[in-house]
Design goal:
single chain; about 90 residues; alpha+beta; Histidine-containing Protein, Chain: A; about 35% helix
Length: about 90
Amino acid sequence: MPEIKLTITHEVGLHARPASTFVQTAAKFSSDIEVTHGETTANAKSILAVLTLGAHKDAEIVVKAEGEDADEALKALEELVLDNFGEH
């Protein structure tokens, strides 16, 4: 299962609008995608699960994907986080 490590740089972390955008992006792919922060792992396609991670600004997350479009999914989520969720 391919994985990437990312640092959340958004001011509010992976909460509210950024979390919603993250989940919407993950949902575009057929692969199973999970995101881990600390000891907690969540389904990246579930807004409630992602919010429970408590990933704040400067938190490191690990995103794993498994399926036929796993690499594409990871690339899209990496670009989203690196682009600060489209907010500048």
